[in-house]
Amino acid sequence: MDTFGLLAEGLLAALQLQNLIYALIGVTLGTAVGVLPGIGPALTVALLLPVTYRLDPAGSLIMFAGIYYGGMYGGSTTSILLNTPGESASIVTALEGNKMARKGRGGPALATAAIGSFIAGLIATLALAFVAPWVVKFALAFGPAEYFALMVLAFITVSAAFGDSALRGLTALFIGLGLGIIGIDLQTGQARLSFGIPDLLDGIEVTTLAVALFAIGETLKIAADRALAKEEVLAVKGSIWMTKDDWKRSWIPWLRGSAIGFPIGAMPAGGADVASFLSYSAERTFAKRPEEFGHGAIEGVAGPEAANNASAAGTLVPLLTLGLPTTATAAIMLAGFQQFGLQPGPLLFTNNASLVWALIASLLVANFMLIVLNLPLIGLWVKLLTIPRPWLYGGILVFATLGTLGANGAMSGRLGPISFSFELLLLLAFGILGYLLRRFGYPIAPVVVGLILGPMAEQQLRRALAISQGDPMILVHSPIAITLYVVAAAAVLLPLYLRLRGRGDVLGQLASDED
Amino acid sequence: MNKFILAALVSGALALPSFAADYTIMAPAAPGGGWDQTARTMQESLQAEGISGNVQVTNVPGAGGTIGLAQFVNQSNGDRNALIVGGYVMVGAILTNASPVTLDQVTPIARLTGEAIAIVVPASSALQSVDDLAAALKENTGAVSWAGGSAGGADHITAGLITKAVGADPTQVNYIAYSGGGEALAAVLGGQVTVGISGYSEFASQIEAGELRLLAVSTAERVPNVDAPTLKESGVDVAVQNWRMVAAAPGITDEQKAAISADIEKMVNSASWKAALESRGWVNTYLAGDAFKAQLTEDIAATESILREIGLVQ
């Protein structure tokens, strides 16, 4: 049977009432855990695993898939409304999304995120059905040298998010890179910069840093500045739905985000965060109105949100075709497969074809359910912004603290008879850092980018050099790596060229004015 | 106080069905990993068999389990209900991280499961057997790159032991650490490295599909239904098993220890545990009491000496 026939058969299976109910439970739970701090899709699936032992395999896998997609949808909501990213993939969304929300455009921001997620989910799920075997070959061609080239590209393009001053941007980036060194070095197992504190052995948690810099830092700044505290926040200005102009500016970023997200998600060491960074920089480069970036450009929400959802579908490619889990949630879904005696891998598509196609079809169904569930909720979510500022920021503090406590805030520290959570101390310390950075006009996103990309780049570079026994030529040994370096070079030179040409125009105009 | 009396009663009458104790099992790893799955499978079995009425699993990830271990030792002293899952990887991690707490500070109850470590090469590799691998190692140890789990873990230790056993220099082992067997699998499939070394289950489906060639398994005996020699059969004198265990809190009484051991023994012999092991592809390597203690001491000593030779522990 051809792919279409198999997919149609899968859809018939997924549309059975029982499976529809499992999908509905999944997406509702997923959206809820995506919005709630401190509990992610991975933990939810792990908690449900014993419960599903008594269900049939198709039903429970469909439910897990619903949770997985739902979590990706829910993650953007707190990012946009409260400037509190719950996971590393929605950090970029906060950059433009929260600016939009503060201008009374929270509705369109949430809408473009939801519709973008839907379209990306749709495209990526179809891609999973039709091109998975080829994508996986491409993904496997990525060795340490190619990953390092990808990281170089990400570093260079992300520097577009640095704002106006390259010096300040680089300073912030290096703070992040420095924080990234903390913890056990994967290649040697030795602890670096942990100062004998066991909590630091595993490095700085990205979400703790992001929540501290974004949410706590901002709260401190508002509290410290009387003028800002009195400034009105517009809850809703104009329609809460997207205008014609919003649609026009969103659809290309949605498609571009999907195209960037899916292959990167399929790479064993890619990840939704890298995809969302690259998408953000791409949108900034191609934007018709780049000056709006940093002040609430809708493209900067549409693209990265599409990218992170497409990348979520992308991670299912190595999971289903290789039995290779690349995220925590995928690892637990793998455990779910094994619980039912299924072995994901090259033989899964032949041995359990009906189950795989039912799963892919239910992803499509879950995607439809999510958009139906999420669009009406937008009206409710934006009401959050009508809460008076002192209360809203008080609420954000509680939200951020509870989230950190829930995620990794065990009472691990001890000072005499008092035990405390080391993670909360970190949250507070980074919150103060975030305040100081804002106070003196340093951008904060590069700090988080440095913490995420720095360790990845370091590990890949060292792996590449270890494999080649120190020969640096391995870094440019493959066409993929060379292509990535060329794109990186273009990303530096193209804006320079455009600016020069732009200035030329201006000069020309000045000259003509003189005439 | 009631619980103590009950515990004493139970331990006095092991033949009687034990009372339903509440357990809190710490998995010192993130959800999804082997330890987490072990803890959750225990939870399922203990509840399904009525051995315990209420079992909770908590996750404290990080640093090869040593972060969770430190927290366990600090917070559950004398707590009869507290259990922690651990394994061979923890032995290595305690040494490489110079962990302030060690396995001496908990009360080991039993080894539960074990898994062979598989040594694989891509199907297209020129290496056909362990002999070829040994020859390559002897010719140029550094040119053979190994992909496996985190540095100092069971995979790395096995790579070091093999290198040493074939007569090459273990300090020259070119081990590329990945943050999990899965990423290592991608590196082997993509032909980025010479050899892959990780738990058999990580590679199983690719071996069946013919994408990877299994050179040998690390255990003393062959893995049932798997057509591959052991390292010993192939002339390399190494036998390693990546085992998982359960331990109780420090400072519990002998009676309490006996009661917990009885509960675990009952669980291991239950139908639901056996079924779960089978579906997950784990091998039952139950070993309790003094025999387990002796095995543990032996493993710790052997691990320390090879980690010194590789140069990971000073």
From TrEMBL, chain A:
Keywords: Membrane, Transmembrane, Transmembrane helix
Domain of life of the organism encoding this protein: Bacteria
InterPro entries: DUF112_TM
Pfam families reported in the protein's UniProt record: TctA
UniProt name for this protein: Tripartite tricarboxylate transporter TctA
Domain DUF112: 20-448
Transmembrane segments: 20-49, 61-82, 109-135, 147-163, 169-186, 316-335, 355-378, 390-409, 415-433, 440-457, 477-498
TrEMBL record, chain B:
Keyword Signal found: yes
InterPro entries: BUG (IPR005064), Bug_dom1 (IPR042100)
Pfam families membership: TctC
Keywords carried by this UniProt record: Signal
Highest rank taxon of the organism: Bacteria
Stretch forming the signal peptide: 1-20
SUPFAM superfamilies found in the cross-reference section: Periplasmic binding protein-like II
Family: Belongs to the UPF0065 (bug) family.
Descriptive protein name: C4-dicarboxylate ABC transporter substrate-binding protein
